Amino acid sequence: MTTSSPAIRVKVPMRWSDMDAYGHVNNVEVLRMLEEARILAFGPPAGTGAPGVRPPVALFDSVPGHVQSLVSEHRVKYLAPLEYRNVPADVDLWISSVKGASLAISYRVSDPVTGTACIKAETTLAFVDAVSGRLLRVSEEQRVLVRPHSGASVFS
């Protein structure tokens, strides 16, 4: 990505056990890698885990502990095999849409050695009150926080 890109680049380790019989990272493990990239870029959801390193964009810091950040949709397109390497994959991610009660995150996963784009994906997250089960609106604070990291959908 260029320096003018809204993307956040994170490095997501590939595990030996992520490989399928063809030596590629298994499609199920790709979803795990997307989750890891989200956490590296935006931090863990409120009320989970112990304190650690502050993420580049602390999107979930202002979310109260009773609010869950739930995946409502994934879309994944495989462009080339992502072969297992003992080097973390490069994942560029950015906010591709903010709606009333959800936001979409676009990803581009690249081979860390060749730079080949292997996967493009998008995840839609919704914020839900765990007590009432109601959807919650994306706050103005969250909108302001993600604005510098907003761009077109990877599927545009």
What does it look like?
- The chain is an alpha+beta fold.
- Helix content is 15%, strand content 33%.
- Strands 1, 2, 3, 4, 5 and 6 form a six-stranded antiparallel β-sheet that branches.
- Strand 4 and strand 5 (117-129) form a beta hairpin.
Task: Write the topology of this structure.
Blueprint: E1 8-12, H1 27-42, E2 67-78, E3 89-98, E4 102-110, E5 117-129, E6 135-136, H2 140-146
Antiparallel strand pairs: 1-3, 2-5, 3-4, 4-5, 5-6
The overall pLDDT average reads 91
Strand fraction: 25-35%
Please count the beta strands (DSSP E, at least 2 residues each).
Answer: 6
Overall geometric form? globular
What is the first-to-last residue Cα distance? 17 Å
Q: Which oligomerization state do the chains in this entry correspond to? A: single chain
Radius of gyration: 16 Å
- SSE topology string: EHEEEEEH
Q: Give the count of helical stretches.
A: 2
Helix content: 10-25%
Structural class: alpha+beta
Uncertain spans, ≥5 residues at pLDDT below 50? none
Largest sheet: 6 strands, antiparallel
